[in-house]
C-alpha cells in the first residue's frame, strides 16, 4: 500500500480536515451553444473560401459571447464564464475586434 495522500485515509475515505468543493451553480454549456454555432458557421465559410463572411461570423460570435457574458446571470452563462466577468468580457471583445480587424485588412485580390 502507498502512503495516504492529502486528506485520504488508508481505507480510501477522505479525512475530516479535507475541504469539500462547493457544488457548481452553472449548467456546463448553457449559452455556449450559441457561440459554438457561430464558430461552426464561420469555419464553414472558411472552408468554402468566403473569408469576409467568415471574418464577420467569427468576430461576431466572439462579440456575441461578450454581450452574453454581460447580460446573462452567472447560473445561465455556462461555458462562457472562465474567469471573472470583467476579464472574460475584455478578452472576448479584444479577440473579436482582433479577428474583425485582421480579416478586413486581408488583401483578397487575385494576383
Question: What does this molecule look like?
Answer:
With 111 residues, the chain is an all-alpha fold. The protein has a domain at 32-104. Helix content is 55%, strand content 0%. It is built from 4 helices and no strands. The chain has helices at residues 32-47, 51-71, 74-77, 85-104. It is elongated and about 70 Å long. The model has no long low-confidence stretch (mean pLDDT 81).
Give structural attributes:
111 residues; membrane; mainly alpha; DUF3017 domain-containing protein; 4 helices
Give the structure's gist in a few sentences.
55% of the residues lie in helices and 0% in strands. By secondary structure, the protein is mainly α.
Amino acid at each position: 500500500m502507498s502512503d495516504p495522500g492529502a486528506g485520504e485515509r488508508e481505507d480510501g475515505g477522505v479525512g475530516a480536515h479535507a475541504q469539500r468543493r462547493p457544488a457548481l451553480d452553472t449548467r456546463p454549456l448553457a449559452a455556449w451553444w450559441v457561440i459554438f454555432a457561430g464558430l461552426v458557421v464561420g469555419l464553414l465559410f472558411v472552408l468554402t473560401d468566403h473569408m469576409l463572411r467568415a471574418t464577420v461570423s467569427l468576430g461576431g460570435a466572439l462579440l456575441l459571447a461578450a454581450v452574453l457574458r454581460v447580460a446573462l446571470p452567472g447560473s445561465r452563462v455556462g461555458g462562457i464564464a472562465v474567469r471573472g466577468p470583467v476579464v472574460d468580457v475584455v478578452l472576448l471583445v479584444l479577440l473579436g475586434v482582433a479577428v474583425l480587424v485582421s480579416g478586413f485588412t486581408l488583401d483578397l485580390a487575385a494576383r
